[in-house]
């Protein structure tokens, strides 16, 4: 067999020992698969706008984006799921608009002592109440506790027995911040004593929608496989769909960056189902959960992104069901979605989560919003996030294999009489390489049905361009065990004949 060198010339005369290196047989795909969170920073924080920044910890996020900022809050939620994965953040400008506000009002004179707790989102502020407490002293104490918390997502001002809370950021996102008193009730020692009345005015009147397109453009040509966003308004999701689409976005043939967007939305069943039916994007997942949850959408979105990053990096074809969304909470029992309601959400392109007796919130099914083909007919082909996650790995592995093994090859027809060691590839050579690759994909549980794959695989030279190979690559992706259906056909007594026959 003749050996083909790339750099050592064939007519070399200078003695003696010369060596070149060829890594084409040693290469393998190794990607960090970084995640990216997009959100607001505080106006006086040093991090630049629209510039991806590597963030290793919550402390670093606080230094860059400001403690109490949306981005820092998102990083804290993400890191509870994925403590070591590569994470980048992009800060966007707040929209022109107003921040959301809410109020806590105290009235009356308590006739006993207790601890009541004010929840702003999922942050608990305990407040000691005694017979000497007045509405003014309680309001002042609550405002002071919130102000003393550097990671508070709101500012607080007390006046005449009321505390006015203002979101740190302008925009409609603040309207989703839950405000509650004694959310955990007596079991947690939370009680409003007799004689005192506490009135909650929910957060509202936040206005303005962010322009996320510049932040998505700032991702440029870098790989970000898991992108978490805190908003789910139509204008924001339209920008995401355009940035990740198959024609000009990150999934286009000439870009090949791929990735998936994760967000969360808290609302009523009808509102979530109605909204889900307005979307149809295979590269977007919206995790829906009932209104009344203390976890705001930006924290839930960051948690979903972190869980997906950990699970899909380990195995893109394995379902995410049962993985815990650490640090999140659902609405109180009696206000959560039933199985039938979650079924309706999944048929509307909304992913679901649930909590069992342990109150741990877990992913149930991370669906994409894709529901219909171009004719408007129901189409489950991109239903679950595992499909795009597996396909992007397969394409990247195939690209890596081809570029590593055939970077500078000549192309000839099958059957050409070639001398040994020639740097020539034929359609059959490429076909054999693809079959070998598929065998490896099958072995690690990403694909199945090798025989059918080989039957449908086509590798041929282009009829009009002799320098081009066209490939029809038909992988059969493995599926997920999602439904276990069992018919319990019981008897009170088997017939004696049947018992005797079995013996």
Account of the 3D structure:
There is one protein chain. A hairpin with a 2-residue loop joins β5 (114-120) and β6. The chain has 503 residues and is α/β, with parallel strands linked by helices. It has an eight-stranded mixed beta sheet, with helices on both faces. 27% of the residues lie in helices and 21% in strands. The chain is globular. The chain has three domains: 35-93 and 210-387, no CATH class; 99-204, Immunoglobulin-like (Sandwich), CATH 2.60.40; 406-503, no CATH class.
Put the structure in a nutshell.
The protein is α/β, with parallel strands linked by helices and 503 residues long. It has helices at residues 58-65, 70-81, 135-148, 213-218, 234-243, 269-276, 297-314, 339-346, 386-405, 427-443, 450-456, 496-502, and strands at residues 35-40, 53-54, 87-92, 99-108, 114-120, 123-129, 154-159, 162-170, 179-181, 196-204, 226-228, 260-267, 284-290, 351-355, 361-365, 410-411, 424-425, 458-461, 469-472. It is built from twelve helices and 19 strands.
